[in-house]
Amino acid sequence: MKNSQLYKGSLTTIVMKLLEENGRMYGYEITQKVKEITKGELKITEGALYPALHKLEAEGVLEVEIENVDNRLRKYYKLTEKGTSETVNRLAELEEFIKNMQSIVNPKLT
Amino acid sequence: MKNSQLYKGSLTTIVMKLLEENGRMYGYEITQKVKEITKGELKITEGALYPALHKLEAEGVLEVEIENVDNRLRKYYKLTEKGTSETVNRLAELEEFIKNMQSIVNPKLT
DNA sequence: ATTTTATACATAGAAGTCTTATGTATATAA
DNA sequence: TTATATACATAAGACTTCTATGTATAAAAT
């Protein structure tokens, strides 16, 4: 992703949130969406994304639908039932993480 | 640290911010401080902290003062000049990271 | 006509961070 | 006397991500 180690560990949470939001997406679409949302500040690399998608699929968090569009392969991913409930937990953890980091960075506000 | 991968990559930023705030601290003190600030939610493990401190020292970000207190060794760390300016960058990156993550999690607000 | 860019997938090797487990040592509380 | 708190440290393994590389089609630019 971008500079800074901070994004490490947030990839699966990002993917799961986007799929919750958009129903189903394919890999390349996810990279473009993240670039767009963050105004180019965060770029997800393919070397990180594809193995992550495969792992989430193997864990039963995502399921895949393969389609052929314009003579090109597309693998659409969507959350399974398990994945949907997992996403709730992930987002709660993310909120808690952000809250904790803000407590550290800005101790006066807490 | 705690559950969730999210904290990966945030350790050095946390350490640098705490040292900026408190002047100088020793390892054990840092672990306790973080536990206190986050109300026990974030626990920094020694296996992560000590190697991180050594690395930051090797990079010239931190410098160490060894003292003997109550027959126990203490290694106080503080930011070097380089470390102080590095901390400014790290905190800016953290703010940007949080902003980006919030854009992803809550696209309606942006 | 040919090269570059965009789309779309994939993996292998290396780098880097963190966890778990373990080790040393002193002081205090149970 | 045993457990807990204080205080340091490292080694092995797990895990994630990056860089580099590979395949393939289509469109745009030179």
Quick recap:
Chain A is an alpha+beta fold and 110 residues long.
Structure description:
Two copies of one chain form a homodimer. With 110 residues, chain A is an alpha+beta fold. Chain A has one domain (5-109): Winged helix-like DNA-binding domain superfamily/Winged helix DNA-binding domain (Arc Repressor Mutant, subunit A, Orthogonal Bundle). Chain A is 55% helix and 16% strand. A three-stranded antiparallel sheet of chain A has the order 1-3-2. In chain A, α1 (11-22) packs across α4 (81-105). The longest helix of chain A has 25 residues, at 81-105. Chain A is globular and about 55 Å long. The two termini of chain A are 31 Å apart. Chain A binds chain B through residues 3-10, 12-14, 17-18, 21, 34, 37-38, 41-42, 90-91, 93-98, 100-105, 107, 110, and chain B through 3-10, 12-14, 17-18, 21, 34, 37-38, 41-42, 90-91, 93-98, 100-105, 107, 110.
Regions with little confidence, pLDDT below 50 for 5+ residues of chain A: none
Strand order of the largest sheet of chain A: 1-3-2
Count the helices of chain A. How many?
A: 4
CATH level 1 name of chain A: Mainly Alpha
Biggest β-sheet of chain A, characterized? 3 strands, antiparallel
Query: Mean of residue pLDDT of chain A?
Result: 93
Cα distance spanning the termini of chain A = 31 Å
Content-based structural category of chain A: alpha+beta
Helix content of chain A: 55-70%
Q: Which fold does the CATH topology of chain A refer to?
A: Arc Repressor Mutant, subunit A
Determine the most extensive contact between two protein chains. A-B, 35 and 35 residues
Oligomer: homodimer
CATH superfamily of chain A: Winged helix-like DNA-binding domain superfamily/Winged helix DNA-binding domain
Strand content of chain A: 15-25%
Q: Would you list the SSEs of chain A in sequence order as H and E? A: HEHHEEH
